[in-house]
Amino acid sequence: xxxxxxxxxxxxxxxxxxxxxxxxxxxxxxxxxxxxxxxxxxxxxxxxxxxxxxxxxx
Length: 58
Known about the structure:
about 85% helix, about 60 residues, 2 helices, single chain, elongated
């Protein structure tokens, strides 16, 4: 289930980029960040719904 972890990390980093681009008033970065959040956020949600949360192997 490493895919869920990678997707969620990319989504979180994109959210940080969106906030940063809002502070700097960078419209192009805001558009790309929102697109990334939308796509990877959707993949994260759908992967969790389809496969469940990652389980611990310990």
